[in-house]
Each structure stands twice: as structure tokens, then as C-alpha cells.
Write a structure and sequence with these properties.
Helix content: over 70%
Number of strands: 2
Number of domains: 1
Strand order of the largest sheet: 1-2
Distance between the termini: 20 Å
Number of helices: 6
CATH class: Mainly Alpha
CATH superfamily: VKOR domain
CATH architecture: Up-down Bundle
CATH topology: de novo design (two linked rop proteins)
Shape: elongated
Strand content: under 5%
Largest sheet: 2 strands, antiparallel
Order of helices and strands: HHHEEHHH
Amino acid sequence: MSAVTFVQKHMLTRSTALGLLVVLVAVGFADTIYLVIKDATGGPVVCNVVEGCGVVLESKWATIGGIPTAFYGLGFYGLLAVFAIAYTIWRDHQLLLLMALVSTIGVIVSAFFVYLQLFVIGAICAYCMLSALIMTAIFGLVWTLVYRDRVHRKTSS
């Protein structure tokens, strides 16, 4: 079985992958908007899963240049949403590559923040870990779409 046949048989359809991508971006957006709102209002973050959200969110790593890291996450999810919507409309491979770039940066930044939580801060923020998990899933889906699109373009020509 050729690689192209394997991909066609065993990978998600483009529409399923895009649907999952939209859901993941929406959940990531909701996760970060919750943290942005809590930061803006000064309200406590409810963290029932693990004890440590407050420690992480009040650490020196919780802001970059005086801006809460959740704002940056909101920007990443916002860019991914715009690119995903544009891709569903125009099916332009360049939009997939932009999503791949944003998701790659997002997963690297997420991995750095997971490292900080585990080995520097010594506490876990469930919302931050959820965002890292979502960004990792988005990364995988986007690169699956990039690969699938390239395979489709090769077989079409």
C-alpha cells in the first residue's frame, strides 16, 4: 500500500478535521477568555481539579511585558479562528501554512509554560494545562490538514 493510499484510508476527512479544529479553537478561546475576564475583574479563578491555579496565575511568569499571558493565548486562538474560517471559504493552501505556523509557535510556547509549571513554579494551573492540551491537538490537526492537502494536490495533478 502506498503512502498516499494509507493517508486516504486512515486519516480524518478534511471536513471532520476542520470541524474538530473549530471546536478546539472555540474551547481554547473560552478557556483563555475566562482567565482574561478574571484577570480584568480581579476575581478569583475557580480551580477544582488541582490546587495551584492561583500560584501559577500570580507568579512572575503570568505576565509578559506587563500583559497577562492569557491575552496572548486569546490572540493565538483568534488568529487560528480567522485562518480556519478563511480556509473553509477559500481552501487556500497558504492559509493552512499560516495555521501551521501559528499552531507550531503555540505548541512551543505551551510546552515552555508546562515546563515552567512543573519545574520552576512547582504548581499546576488546570486552565493553562487545558490550553496546552488544546494547542497540541490543534497542532496535530493542522499538520494533518497540511499533509492531507499536499497529498490531495499531488494526486490531483
